[in-house]
Amino acid sequence: MNSMDWDGIRFFLAAAETGSLSAAAKKLATNQPTVGRHINSLEESLGVKLFQRSVKGLSLTEEGKRIHEESQQIQSSVVKIQRTVQAESETISGTVKLSLPEGICHEAIMPVLGVFYKQYPDIKLQLDLSSSSANLTRGDADIAIRLFRPKQADLVIKKLGDMQMGLFSSDEYSRNFGSPITLDELKNHRIISYGDLLHNLPENQWLLKHSDKTLNITTSDSTIARLKATLSGCGISIQPVFFKRANNPLVPVLVSEKIPSHEVWLVYHKDLRHLSRMRVALEFLSAHMIKILSP
C-alpha cells in the first residue's frame, strides 16, 4: 500500500454520496477530472477498486462499501477537531451554517434578519434551503430547523412548538370561484398540492383525499411557489397558519377542519454548544420561532 491520499477521502465521499463524478465535482466546487484523479489515486494507494463505473453512474464495490463506512467516521473526526479548535479562539463573529425549510426561512426568519444583524454584525449566516436534511455530524450545517424529531445521539434538540396548517385561498380566487362552506364542497374547487418529493406528507394526503384530482391544477415541492400561486388566485392550498400574518390577501378556508400539523425542532451538534456565535444564533432563532408558532 502506498502513502494515503487523505484529500482523496473527501472526493471519495462526495462521489459515493452523489453517484457520479460530475455531481461530486459540483458539490465540491471543482471539475470532473480533478475528482476522478483523486479517486484513482486513492484506489491506487489502497490497492482496491472502490467503484463500479457504468453509464448510469458510480456504484460502490463491496470493498468500497466497507471503506465508505470508515471514511465517514474519519470525516466526522476531522469535523470534530475543527470545531474544537474554533471553540478555543471564538469571538462573536464568523459563519453559522443554517439548514431550514424554505417556507420558514422566507416567512419567519428573513423578515427579522435585519434585527439579528444589528445585534451581531460580524456573524455571517449561510442558509441551506434544500429539501434534503443536512448532515450535522458531517458538518453540512451547524444548526437545523426540522419538521421532525431527529434521533441521532450526538445531536442536541429542542422542540420549538407545533406548526399548525390551514387551508387558504385569496381574495381574487374567492371573487372568481367562491369559497367552500363544507368539506364536501372542496371537491368542487381548484387546489394546489405538493410535488413528488413531499407527496406523502400527511397534510397533502388529507388535501388529496378531500379534493377532486381533476381540479388539482398546480403541484410543487416549493412552499413559496405554492404560496405565490395561492396569492395569485390559482386555487386553494395548505399553508402554515402563521403565513397569514405577513400575507394579508390569504383568505382562510374551512377553518374548523383539523389538518395534520408539524412539530418544529431546533437541532445542533453537541460539539458546537460552546461557540459564542452558535449560542447567540440559537437564542435568536429559538426565541423568534417560539413566538411565531405560539397560537
UniProtKB/TrEMBL annotation:
Q: Which keywords does the record carry?
A: DNA-binding, Transcription, Transcription regulation
Task: Using the record's annotation, list all stretches that form the HTH lysR-type domain.
Answer: 4-61
Does the keyword section mention S-adenosyl-L-methionine?
no
Q: Name one Pfam family in it.
A: HTH_1
GO terms (molecular function) for this protein are: DNA-binding transcription factor activity; sequence-specific DNA binding
Instruction: Tell me a GO biological process for this protein.
Output: DNA-templated transcription
Q: Which domain of life does the UniProt lineage start with?
A: Bacteria
Could you tell me which PANTHER family the record lists for this protein?
HTH-TYPE TRANSCRIPTIONAL REGULATOR, TRANSCRIPTIONAL REGULATORY PROTEIN
UniProt lists the family membership as follows:
Belongs to the LysR transcriptional regulatory family.
Instruction: Identify this protein by name.
Output: HTH lysR-type domain-containing protein
